[in-house]
Specification:
Layout: E1 5-6, E2 10-13, E3 19-27, E4 39-40, E5 45-53, E6 62-68, E7 73-74, E8 80-81, E9 87-90, H1 108-113
Parallel strand pairs: 2-9
Antiparallel strand pairs: 1-4, 2-3, 3-5, 5-6, 6-9, 7-8
Amino acid sequence: MSLGLPVAATVNCADNTGAKNLYIISVKGIKGRLNRLPSACVGDMVMATVKKGKPELRKKVMPAVIVRQRKPWRRKDGVFMYFEGSCFFFLSLLFRVDFERINIMLASTSLVAS
């Protein structure tokens, strides 16, 4: 899968937690290589902070899952998938879903991969 969201990317919110923009700090499961930025794709868990949104969500490091990305990726059946923009879902600190409603369309890959 094409890694479309590197560290320091700003991503929009896809749920009703009150966050507007997310700033990616790190990607879970990436060990790294010299001078290469860790990147995330659909279904990856990232650690992030809220840059715009409710004051109680800001200035805290929280886990999130990427559910849409603008960079195209190829599925096993040969179809190239991409979205209009990149989006995420916030998770609670216990890695449970922290929202009640989804505001966007999703790819089925994002739900299976996480």
